[in-house]
Specification:
The structure holds three protein chains of three kinds.
Chain A (H helix, E strand, L loop, with lengths): L22 H32 L17 H8 L1 H33 L4 H15 L2 H12 L5 H9 L15 H26 L3 H9 L4 H12 L1 H17 L2 H5 L12 H10 L4 H30 L1
Helix pairs in contact in A: 1-13, 3-4, 3-7, 3-10, 3-12, 4-7, 7-10, 10-13, 12-13
Chain B lengths: L1 H22 L10 E7 L7 H14 L3 E7 L2 H13 L6 E4 L2 H9 L7 H7 L6 H6 L1 E2 L2 E2 L1 E6 L3 E5 H6 L9 H13 L3 E3 L7 H24 L8 H15 L12 H10 L3 E6 L3 H8 L10 E4 L14 E3 L1 E6 L5 H10 L2 H9 L18 H12 L3 E3 L1 H4 L2 H16 L4 H15 L2
Parallel strand pairs in B: 1-2, 1-3, 8-9, 11-13
Antiparallel strand pairs in B: 3-12, 4-5, 6-12, 7-9, 7-10
Helix pairs in contact in B: 9-10, 9-17, 10-18, 11-12, 17-18
Chain C lengths: L1 H39 L4 H6 L11 H9 L2 H32 L5 H10 L5 H14 L7 H24 L3 H9 L4 H12 L1 H17 L2 H6 L8 H11 L4 H36 L1
Helix pairs in contact in C: 1-13, 4-7, 4-10, 4-12, 5-7, 7-10, 7-13, 8-9, 10-13, 12-13
Classes of the chains: A mainly alpha, B alpha/beta, C mainly alpha.
């Protein structure tokens, strides 16, 4: 039996074979969705629509909406080198996450998914722990560790490399972004790891046995058995990873507000600084819409790729 | 199974209880009383009771008034106030630093004009310069209860160690002093540039010393701009200081309260450029909670050779309260009460340690440094509110960002001036 | 044959060793910062500044006990707990109902509705804060717990509906047919089969909602005015603003704030893998 024929996509439950719904069922369907629909519409969709309106105004946010300027905010935005700096930083976050964070999460998932022994459960629990902490706490703990006068790193350098003068990774524009990226990794890799564990645990062991019988080596087993079954988990992980990277704010803000000198500034940090804090709500709204459109474009692409795969 | 039922039961009870509390969250003032919403940011354990005491005294004298206080720490206060103002529903009486931020509120009709009440019916009198900070286009929208200035706070012992029994009085002298301190292994200046506003003080003061009131007026309301020589030269002089590397390690990410004030309070740095609250914050941030005591000295910002500004010119600001557009008249009465000589004395002698504005209240000042500041405020012909409050909010942000660029070495003096000018041109209307 | 198995066994034990080395390495990366934060709270500020790594000498338990008795901690804790419980309850119920609808009915507009909900994932709360504030004011929900609970729940729904939808879809059709024979309609199926079987998904969504609500700083800051209603994150920022350089006290406060979230997580964590497995991964 050829190993490759065993590579199947994950099975999906489906009720598509059932008969069409009755009117009563249709009413029930909408009734079940009503609470969710109301909440999402009132508190997410409606504010988003309002944001679109605000983006066409040069408005400081106080008092009534005034000063219609058409697309001027968009022009200003696209001409601002700091905005492109922010987008470039978002790109770096995405790249770092996809090529460093996710592979490490995958590796660790493989190591902790096999059994349900006490040690593996312990490690699984520990790895997910940072995800539970709030961004503020994470920022405080790491600012403390990176602190140039009395942080952990300062002590470590003092003992191991006394000639090196540690001035604080968060204080140097050249190192601040990497320092923060590490914290982003620290906080979120557990989430992706759990997704991969979930995926790995769903692979029936018979496939591996069959592969072994066919004489496959570990690499082949990985490529022809593991990866295909992991497709859904990987897709989900990529989705949240990219959307999260485009929207990252809290951790960066609590570790220096994107500074010094915009070195760690991402799109949402840029929005908060130049929109909300500068009392330029109209401009801020335009930035929000641009970010939203980027996320939307990604989502459309993502859906298309998934749907193409399923055919 | 039973445990599950137990948990379900507890959750159910909790839910019912929570929903009850959640829905009754709104408090009504239906009992015939006038409610005053008072917002401030003195969230420190030692400070907020002072305001509660004043409010309580006022309510005793005015039994039909109910004062509801909302207190948040600094950054949270600014965020929340911004949102509240943006929704068009200001508190009745709330803390403001005046200047451009307050002006934008006034421009949008969110504040109450109290010019008439102040000029005709007020119990105390406040210095004109101070009142000016809370005026816009000739109308008064609030008053400061404390007004002070920014200057150099220095550790007398550390300066004496390198031969300065009196602090340096000119910029050249100042740079020499810094060099000597650095050579002696003492951190010359503590700076929390992560917060950005402490750094912009340096740039502003150099501009104040170089060009004085004239240069500033020319740039803001005259036919000049922030690209004028004054502001470029200010950047150049600041670069001279930065080149000496006088700040503590990692200053670019340091905070004011956690780092700058702590370094001073613990005697680990010789000088800081800060406002009248510096001693109080140094004490709070120090390890022994005592600070430097009378080892702390205060001096005016050094004179710059060839500068057109006067030595009495003062940069600084204070704290004040403004009145929201929907406020009941009792809120104005409350402001009058707070700015009375008696209550300003109360705030002066208490833990808040303000430098009072009401003429006559300054007799309660005991700290010689604060007395000096108080005199300087009265003597200043040109009183410049810090740029990040005076200029429109967007420009304030640019000033802070650009000056941080100077400190980080990523921006030059001309670029800083150009950035500030570009923003100011876009914002002024 | 036997040589091969011996080599294989050797390879396995070697890799066991490296496997644990790798795991321990990453576990340390996570645990050391947390450990430092915890012991930092027991130190005096002097010792914290000079020796951040060592064990507290003297061991100051009063930093921690002071938090409970002085800083209004219990009040903030209770407020956060109330908001959290109601959020979790509403979130689980609404998401489960919606997930059920989207996975076990055959209506043409099903996918459209699902995509509508997914839109909510693309817009973080920070961006929506001003229009949201105006909306809440118009509804009279400012300075109320409900004003925090409802928007918070709304932003959690897209992901949680996704989880329930995926999970409930996995329930075999035969089970639904079986209860139909007994005379149960869709809702009967929901109450008697879906809900009991959905324990992992309910646990997962509960933990995620609980954590999100407990850690939420921005929304309560904007909505709540009355200091008595403040949540724990707001209380901690207040704390930081007061105790600027007293890192030991700040760390203690934060560590104590973490405890409920961690406790709940440890209690429910065994379900998270299966919940996410069926819900997010297979779906």
């Amino acid at each position: 039996m050829d190993v490759t024929t065993l590579a199947v996509t994950a099975k999906k439950g489906s009720s598509d074979h059932k008969a069409k719904a009755t009117n009563r069922e249709r009413a029930l369907f909408y009734a079940l969705l009503l609470p969710a629909f109301l909440l999402v519409t009132m508190f997410i969709i409606y504010p988003v629509v309002n944001t679109v309106f605000y983006s066409f105004y040069d408005w400081n946010g106080f008092g009534p909406l005034k000063n219609f300027v058409g697309l001027k905010n968009l022009r200003t935005l696209l001409r601002d080198p700091l905005f492109w700096n922010a987008l470039r930083n978002n790109g770096i976050v995405i790249g770092f996450s996809i090529f460093v964070q996710l592979p490490i999460a995958f590796l660790l998932a493989i190591l902790v998914s096999k059994s349900s022994s006490r040690p593996t459960i312990f490690f699984r629990t520990v790895f997910f722990l940072p995800y539970i902490l709030s961004e503020i706490i994470t920022g405080v703990i790491w600012r403390f560790i990176y602190h140039p006068q009395f942080g952990l790193l300062q002590q470590v350098f003092a003992k191991l490399a006394p000639d090196y003068s540690y001035t604080g990774f968060l204080a140097d524009p050249k190192t601040v972004f990497i320092a923060i990226l590490f914290v982003v990794f620290w906080k979120y890799f557990g989430f992706h790891m759990i997704l991969y564990v979930a995926g790995l645990q769903g692979i029936p062991p018979e496939y591996y046995e069959a592969a072994l019988i066919d004489g496959a080596n570990p690499v082949q087993a990985f490529v022809y058995v593991t990866l295909p079954f992991m497709k859904n988990a990987i897709q989900m992980s990529l989705f949240f990873c990219i959307i999260g990277s485009l929207q990252v704010f809290d951790i960066i803000w609590s570790m220096g507000q994107g500074g010094p000198v915009h070195a760690a500034e991402t799109a949402v940090v840029y929005l908060y600084k130049f929109g909300i804090k500068s009392s330029k709500m109209g401009f801020g709204s335009m930035v929000a819409i641009v970010i939203f459109v980027i996320c939307l474009a990604f989502n459309v692409l993502y859906q298309r790729v998934i749907n193409k795969e399923e055919r | 199974m039973n445990m599950r039922k137990g948990i379900v039961g507890i959750v159910a009870i909790l839910m019912v209880a929570s929903l009850t509390v959640a829905c009754s969250g709104k408090t009504k003032a239906d009992n015939g009383k006038v409610t005053i919403n008072f917002w401030h940011l003195d969230s420190n354990d030692l400070h907020y009771p002072e305001w509660e005491k004043i409010a309580a005294k006022f309510m005793e004298a005015h039994p039909n008034v109910d004062i509801k206080i909302t207190v948040l720490e600094n950054e949270a206060y600014k965020s929340k106030l911004a949102t509240v103002m943006q929704s068009g529903n200001p508190p009745d009486i709330f803390r403001s630093w005046g200047g451009g931020v307050m002006n934008s509120y006034a421009e949008s009709g969110l504040l109450k004009d109290i010019t008439n009440e102040y000029k005709n019916k007020w119990d105390s009198k406040i210095g004109e310069g101070a009142v000016g900070v809370y005026s816009y286009k000739g109308k008064i929208y609030g008053l400061p209860y404390t007004m002070g200035g920014v200057g150099i706070w220095y550790n007398k012992d550390l300066l004496a160690k390198v031969g300065y029994t009196n602090p340096p009085e000119t910029w050249k002298d100042f740079l020499d002093c810094v060099k000597k301190l650095k050579a002696a292994g003492i951190t010359p200046i503590a700076l929390g540039e992560g917060d950005k506003w402490p750094g912009h003080f340096w740039w502003v003061y150099l501009a104040v010393r170089l060009g004085g009131k004239e240069a500033f007026n020319k740039a803001t309301i005259g036919n000049g701009s922030f690209n004028d020589e004054t502001f470029v030269k200010a950047g150049e002089l600041l670069q001279e200081l930065i080149a000496l590397k006088p700040f503590q390690e990692g200053f670019l990410a340091a905070t004011y309260g956690g780092d700058q004030a702590a370094l001073m309070g613990n005697g680990k740095a010789a000088m800081e450029l800060m406002g009248q609250w510096a001693p109080a914050v140094e004490i709070g941030s120090s390890e022994d909670k005592k600070g430097l005591g009378d080892k702390l000295g205060f001096m005016s910002f050094p004179a710059v050779e060839g500068g057109k500004g006067k030595l009495t010119d003062l940069m600084g600001g204070g704290d004040g309260l403004v009145i929201g557009k929907n406020a009941p008249k009792e809120a104005v009465e409350f402001l009058k009460y707070i700015t009375s000589v008696e209550n300003e004395k109360f705030l002066t002698t208490g833990p808040l340690g303000i430098v009072p504005t009401a003429i006559g209240a300054e007799t309660a000042l005991t700290d010689p440094n604060l007395v000096a500041i108080n005199k300087a405020v009265s003597a200043a012909a040109y009183f410049q509110l810090y740029y990040d409050q005076y200029l429109p909010p967007a420009t304030g942000e640019v000033v802070k960002d650009a000056t941080q660029g100077l400190f980080a070495g990523t921006m030059g003096p001309k670029e800083v001036a150009a950035a500030v000018d570009a923003s100011y041109q876009a914002e002024k209307k | 044959m036997s040589a091969r198995t011996t080599n294989a066994r050797k390879a396995v034990s070697l890799s066991e060793g490296t496997k644990y080395a790798v795991l321990i390495f990453f576990a340390l990366i996570i645990l050391v910062p947390i450990y430092l934060a915890v012991i930092g709270g027991f130190k005096s500020i002097g010792q914290l500044n000079s020796d951040p790594v060592g064990f507290p000498k003297p061991f100051l338990a009063e930093n921690y006990s002071n938090i409970f008795f002085k800083s209004g901690f219990f009040k903030y804790f209770l407020n956060s707990a109330i908001i959290m419980s109601v959020t979790v309850a509403i979130d689980v119920i609404v998401a489960a109902l919606a997930g059920f609808a989207l996975s076990r009915f055959t209506i043409k507009t099903k996918n459209l509705v699902y995509q509508y909900f997914l839109l909510g994932l693309l817009f973080p709360m920070t961006l929506a804060i001003l229009p949201l504030y105006i909306q809440l004011r118009a509804l009279g929900l400012l300075d109320t717990f409900i004003g925090v609970i409802l928007p918070q729940t709304a932003f959690l729904l897209p992901f949680h509906i996704l989880i329930f939808k995926g999970f409930i879809k996995e329930i075999p059709d035969e089970l639904e047919d079986a209860v139909k024979i007994d005379g149960c309609g869709k809702m009967g199926f929901f109450m008697h089969v879906v809900v009991p079987l959905s324990r992992p998904a309910i646990a997962t969504v509960s933990v995620l909602a609980m954590v999100a609500s407990w850690n939420n700083f921005f929304l309560p800051l904007i909505v709540l005015n009355d200091k008595d209603k403040f949540t724990l994150p707001m209380g901690s920022m207040d704390f930081v603003g007061q105790y600027l350089a007293d890192w030991n006290i700040i760390l203690a406060f934060f560590v104590v704030s973490m405890v409920p979230a961690i406790a709940f997580y440890l209690y429910a964590q065994r379900h998270i893998v299966s919940g996410l497995a069926a819900g997010a991964v297979k779906g």
